[in-house]
Amino acid sequence: MTKTCGVDWREHCRSASSELVSTRWWFRGSWLPGRYGKQKSLAGPVFVLVYFIIGEFTGVSIIYWFRDCDPVLRGAIKSYDQIVPYHMMKNLADVPLLRGLFLAGLVGSSTSTVSSIVNSHAAIFYVDVVTPYVKLNEKKAVVVMRLLAFASGTIMTLGAIAVPYLGTAARLFMSFYSSAAGPFSGLFLLALSSPWVNAKGAGCATLLVCVFLLWHAVGRGFSDIPPVPVLSKSLDRCPLQSNASDLNDYSASVAGVEDVASSNVFPLYLVSFYWISFIGALLTIILGTALSLMTGGHKTTQRNVRLTSPVFLNIWKRFRCLRRTMTVGDALKSVLLRTDRINIEKIRHKYE
What we know:
Elements: H1 2-15, H2 19-31, H3 34-65, H4 71-74, H5 83-91, H6 98-130, H7 138-166, H8 169-193, H9 199-222, H10 245-258, H11 273-294, H12 301-304, H13 310-318, H14 328-351
Keywords: Cell membrane, Ion transport, Membrane, Sodium, Sodium transport, Transmembrane, Transmembrane helix, Transport
GO molecular function: symporter activity
Subcellular location: Cell membrane
């Protein structure tokens, strides 16, 4: 249940509604022929599924390999963020070409992801923030885009430098990405399912929920909440030179932390990051609908019907949420007729 409500929403944002993934799929379909582009788009989720399966099996194999000789408890590594390269160098170093492939894949994937994020940030900020207020020629626009990309890369670099001082990378990624995944997944579903939602309502709802979840992530990180229960650790299969007293010290420290009463912790901080992602998506949908109806979203319902999924349109018709029964084809026809009338009137006034 926790995985369905938490992890699936985060992965939905990453694999379905992310700006990086969407732009890649749109570009892929733009240069391929019709049916081949569709086949490639349908094959994409299969490769994503294979990637997740390999990741799951890799995690299970690492847990099994170090089941009775924890490397952090032994002192071989300082953080669990280092366990994958440590496993590669310690246990798989004798496999031919594997270390080179591992390093090449790590550098290639990180470079591709960072470049996509930097370019997307620069393009979105320029189009949505700069363009509506400042008119620039092509030469100046290129300079501004490069400066925005440089600023985005600088912020990402400073964040990467600060990660070791803030905790483990996995914990920070899970906390902040889960905080952002819920609102943006809710925004994606709002645009797909609700024709009465407008930009003001959806934007304000997403911003409010993002601020709320960011406050939750920061507050939970600085609170005295007990650590999440983990698998039992031992040094039974470690070499003889390992100091068994490390296990006793670790067990005593964990027991001392778990004895801290959670009654002094704000109740909302006790909500897991997995559940907070689901709560964020639900709040975004509810607030976005309410704020849109308050700001006149019902006036643009007929115009937005052609942009809504037919599946959700049939659901709203069944529950009589739409006053006028129409299909997507009817909405398109009405829009085209209205456009034709406007063009005819312009031509008539021009020649009169």
